[in-house]
Specification:
By secondary structure, the chain is an alpha/beta fold. It has 2 domains: 5-240, Spore Coat Polysaccharide Biosynthesis Protein SpsA, Chain A; 247-323. Helix content is 47%, strand content 17%. The chain has helices at residues 17-28, 31-34, 51-61, 76-86, 105-115, 152-157, 172-175, 186-196, 225-238, 246-249, 251-270, 275-298, 305-326, and strands spanning 7-13, 38-44, 65-69, 91-94, 100-101, 119-129, 144-145, 166-168, 200-212. Strands 1, 2, 3, 4, 5, 6, 7, 8 and 9 form a 9-stranded mixed β-sheet that branches. Strand 2 (38-44), helix 3 and strand 3 form a beta-alpha-beta unit. Helix 8 runs parallel beside helix 9 (225-238) and helix 12 (275-298) runs antiparallel to helix 13. The chain is elongated and about 85 Å long.
Length: 327
């Protein structure tokens, strides 16, 4: 069923009264909003400041702005998870209160996802500013993030998709929510989760965003936390990756499978009851299964799921067949 909105932008706010007005102005100026295809969702995580009244002013004048305040403070990723459940758009983007976008940024990104159904997430280059509440149109920023084309190996080294990506809402059904126990690397963990399952992302080689180097923001507000969380995430995924060569990792179980087949054929053709053959066939079948499950522990690639299923079934079959064929 086609949704009313193409994109839902999730704004998580806490102590962001000085930024929230500019954030909402930036969103309603988006070409996608002007076409009625952008939903704005504001999650107020029990902020002690008065973002609520500013949001309500915008709600009075502009449609398609949803506001929810929580009773207690939550992590930004808990707020994103709330927003995703409320989202009616096919695509999701996070709208950080202190960052800004080119006026057609969301439309450009949504169009790319429309045109490339195999891409799960898009990101673009960004300008960097030290000036609060600058807009994309009036910034004097010259420094920029020139993000590389996507590769999973690059993603494992750093969060190379930047702070303003857009992704498909449908991804959350198979891959779950953002981990709410992270404070600033939960998005990085989710991108690695996608990449580890073979999902593809893409760079749009245009400058579409303006990133504020906020000294009080989530990334820089607590010295060292972002770095430590990112290291934890990288360690989690790098240490749980498949061997570099998937073929080499299959040599042991495949060799066991071939030997098991030879023994099975030998036992059927010659109807032998030799104990060494019976025991050897069963042991080799067990070795095959152990090899398969050892491989399963490491491999994650989506495209190898069928291979894994076939190997498991074959292993179970060759555990049973040699025994019954001999007796």
């Amino acid at each position: 069923m086609k949704t009313k909105f193409r994109v839902s932008a999730i704004v998580s706010t806490y102590n962001s009264e000085q930024f929230i007005r500019g954030c909402l102005q930036d969103l309603i100026a988006q070409t996608l909003y002007q076409k009625g295809e952008l939903q704005i969702i504001v999650i107020d995580s029990a902020s002690p400041q008065d973002e609520k009244s500013i949001v309500q002013q915008f709600q009075a004048d502009y449609p398609n702005i949803v506001y929810q305040r929580t009773a207690t403070r939550e992590t930004i990723y808990t707020a994103w998870n709330r927003g995703i459940k409320m989202a009616q758009g096919s695509y999701i983007t996070n709208a950080n209160t202190d960052d800004r976008r080119r006026s057609d940024a969301l439309e450009v990104m949504a169009n790319y996802l429309d045109e490339h159904p195999k891409i799960c997430l898009v990101y673009a280059d960004q300008l960097l500013t030290n000036v609060a509440n600058e807009t994309f149109d009036n910034t004097q920023a010259e420094q920029r993030f020139n993000w590389p084309p996507y590769s999973y190996s690059e993603l494992k080294q750093r969060c190379c998709v930047g702070s303003q990506p857009m992704w498909r809402k449908s991804l959350h059904k198979p891959y779950g929510d953002f981990r709410s126990d992270f404070h600033c690397a939960g998005d990085y963990e989710f991108w690695l989760r996608l990449g580890s399952h073979g999902e593809k992302m893409a760079l749009i080689p245009q400058i579409l965003g303006l990133y504020y180097l906020n000294p009080q923001g989530i990334e820089y507000g607590v010295p060292g936390r972002a770095s430590e969380e990112s290291k934890l995430v990288r360690k989690l995924y790098i240490t749980n990756q498949p061997p570099k060569s998937s073929f080499k990792s299959l040599l042991v179980p495949l060799s066991s499978l071939i030997i098991g087949i030879i023994l099975l054929i030998f036992s059927i053709l010659f109807k032998t009851r030799e104990p060494w053959l019976r025991v050897g066939g069963i042991l080799l079948s067990i070795a095959l299964i152990l090899g398969i499950f050892g491989y399963l522990k490491w491999i994650n690639a989506k495209e190898l799921r069928l291979t894994r299923v076939v190997l498991v079934v074959a292993g179970l079959a060759f555990l049973v067949l040699p025994y019954f064929s001999i007796f």
